[in-house]
Amino acid sequence: MNVPKTSFVASGSIPEISKDWHTLNVEESLAILTSDFNQGLTAKQIEQRKQAFGTNELKESGGRSALVILWEQFTNIMLVMLIAVAIVSAVLDFRQGTFPKDAVAIFAIVIVNGILGYLQESRAEKALAALKRLSAPQVRVIRQGKTTEIPAKDLVPGDIMLLEAGVQIAADGRLLEAQNLQVRESTLTGEAEAVLKQADVILPHDSSLGDRINLVFQGTEVVLGRAKVIVTKTGMDTEIGHIAAMIQSVETEPTPLQQRMTQLGNVLVSSSLGLVAIVVIGGVLRTGWQFFEQLLEVSLSMAVAVVPEGLPAVVTVTLAIGTQKMVRRHALIRKLPAVETLGSVTTICSDKTGTLTQNKMVVQKVETGSYHFNVTGEGYNPVGEFLSKQHQQLQTEPEVQQLMLACVACNDALLQQKKTPKQTEWHILGDPTEGALLALAGKAGIFKENLDSKMPRMGEFPFSSERKRMSVIVDNGDGTSSYSMFTKGSPELILECCDRILLKDQLVPITAEQRQHILTENDGMASNGLRVLGFAYKPLSSVPDAEDQENTERELVWLGLIGMLDAPRPEVKEAVKRCRSAGIRPVMITGDHQLTAMAIASELGIASPYEQVLTGQRLQAMSDLELEEAVDQVSVYARVSPEHKLRIVKALQKRGKFVAMTGDGVNDAPALKQADIGIAMGITGTDVSKEASDMILLDDNFATIVAATEEGRVVYDNIRRFIKYILGSNIGEVLTIAAAPLIGLGGVPLSPLQILWMNLVTDGLPALALAVEPAEPNVMKRPPYSPRESIFARGLGLYMVRIGIIFAILAIALMVWAYNHAQADGNPERWKTMVFTTLCLAQMGHALAIRSDTQLTIQINPFSNPYVLGAVTLTTILQLLLIYVEPLRNFFNTHWLSPTELGICVGFSLLMFVWIEFEKIVLRLLKKRG
């Protein structure tokens, strides 16, 4: 036994905090904490312990301030380059005595992009605030021999705390005494069923958190009974405190999209600076220093051209559109980048209760003296069949009817229906196990509201942990003053009290063979993960005294066994299949028993029936390296604690997996935050789990995760599509601008303001339209793309360079013709407007052609994404307004083009569309030959 040591100070004893209070008895706990069962702590002890342990509150570690987050947005390498460009541009404009409109426009774009980034990152973590809300404001304690009520924050180790039904427990403690104490610990263990606590047990050192029935924990709730508890841990030393510490210790990693955008920025800026250096050095060598200022203007335009100023806004809007689509599929995204991140998921770690299952106990099997049958039906709906190969119409058999009577009579729950316009929903008030029994009896036509009036309850022997059963006495309602006692509980213990068995409608002595058969059936049901209850009854001539339970609960008549299970959601099996076909591995992590976990996992296809189950007890003994080696083989984890969930997620990530983790309890919060995608339950989830998550399932359904993953893949495909579109165009712009001084043309073909127009409007609007392109047919029939793949992977980089060069060749050819034409025509600046217009209109053809990599544009239904047509039409009109509306023409420094000149621009632009379509035909032919 690991007994904690006690340290002493000059003025009295202050105990050390131990992790092993469940291994100690009541006397040892009181002695170590130097407290008194009846008197509690003295005033002197309380003051000393306040000094030593502090207040019973959760402490918050420092995080990034709002100003730091805002400042970090402007350290982005692309924005830094734009800021430098804006400053140089402003200096040049002031030297020339002109208003620095280029610099103002660039600064405006920088500020907008910085604000967009800040809004995405500035969601402060509120998980700790939600944890603090779990603390009870007041608590009843015994201090100096008197019962008093104090603020929960003033509790110290050694305080004697009094609990009763409805109380939220304010600190961790060891039970001193308990009367039928039941505590709901779902916030810590994730399991909804209340735990029956016992003060007089001593548990092994390696008992899991859910099995420590002699301890109570902060943040859990008393649902039944009373207890006296000695406080053992307060504040950050409690189990809730450990979770708070874990939440704050988890470092948030940038999402794949954020990493790819950073990589993209680095490549673009470095390439741009290299190109600027070539142009400036080449220009100086060719023309001398007298044209340095003109070369500097060219460099500024190139720098603006290489940065896709509209890309952050397009990405943000695309992710926002994705969030709206996901809401329609019952998934609420809390952090925008999580939309795309979902598409990279390789492993989904799911809780069992409520996510894979209905969170409703459903009877699966029934065994009576003569019959063994299965039961169909869903949830608490009292509609289903009793299925047996040997027997028909089992509902009307006397021994089945008697068992159904026992299910209803020996029951404190209520089965109710709620009618909606679409359907009638059944739900229960009371214990889920008792609700399952009412639904079972309803399938045989026996309902509680009818039975209570015909056979009123006359007495009862309540459930106790020692007897592990409950009994009720009812009036038979036949006018003969006869009564029946119905008993339910532990099958083994009830069977010991039986000397007869009901066969058909006869009471016969129970044989040793029948007893053995019942015990074997009980073990068989339990091994399949079912929760099994035994039922018996006894005819009575009078209502026994409340104190006479021991004599009354003897010589019972055995009725049968009932096995129930929190049944799987019907749609999850198909969702698991879709996961498998999409290259995503589902994993179950639950606090439930391993047999129950494996029964559900094998039925859903998550694991085979003979696969290894890793329990929390075994996991605790494993090193991190051993766990990393095991996670690839294990698909089911049972009886796990919060630390275990966090370790499992980390181990999977070490193996290169991209992990989505579901959870609803406080215990899940650290793992939710650690996971690449944390998914909280919207219905059953705690505020803590929701605040720690990236996504919330509004219907608590595993199938919704799969639907959201599909949407994430579509979003990523579309982001890649419009990045190809935007950057292919930008490379063409940069090469065109760079070529102008190198081939001896006077001036810069595009001003920074015109480039901003192209990057924000003629690039931005079609890019937004491409963001809502429908899913490809194979989107969920391929493995996920590696979350660590480069943004330029799978041919995207080559495409951008290739298309950029084609853009540039067309634009340079047009530029040379237009320059010579403008010189001869007496308007030497008009060529710049022709280059500007050609580049803008060529992008419209690019937008139409890029919708598919393989299908020709004529083969694609234009109305499958009408936004592309709308964006191309609107952008073309806006571009023409810049040429033919005088105020806009003056602001953007464009010139009037004749119909012939405009037609030439359109003709050169169409060549871009023709080239991309030609590429598709060539690729299709090469694929056929290959």
Automatic annotation (TrEMBL):
Source organism: Stanieria cyanosphaera (strain ATCC 29371 / PCC 7437)
Location(s), subcellular: Membrane
Classification via SUPFAM superfamilies: Calcium ATPase, transduction domain A, Calcium ATPase, transmembrane domain M, HAD-like, Metal cation-transporting ATPase, ATP-binding domain N
TM region positions: 68-91, 103-119, 267-286, 298-321, 722-743, 755-775, 796-819, 831-850, 862-884, 896-918
Major subcellular site: membrane
GO cellular component, as recorded: plasma membrane
Protein's name in the database: ATPase, P-type (Transporting), HAD superfamily, subfamily IC
Bilayer topology: Multi-pass membrane protein
GO MF annotations in UniProt: ATP binding; ATP hydrolysis activity; metal ion binding; P-type calcium transporter activity
Superkingdom of origin: Bacteria
Domain Cation-transporting P-type ATPase N-terminal: 20-94
SMART domains: Cation_ATPase_N
EC code: 3.6.3.8
Family membership: Belongs to the cation transport ATPase (P-type) (TC 3.A.3) family. Type IIA subfamily.
One Pfam family, short name: Cation_ATPase_C
CDD domains in alphabetical order: P-type_ATPase_Ca_prok
PROSITE patterns registered for this protein in UniProt: ATPASE_E1_E2
Keyword terms: ATP-binding, Hydrolase, Magnesium, Membrane, Metal-binding, Nucleotide-binding, Translocase, Transmembrane, Transmembrane helix
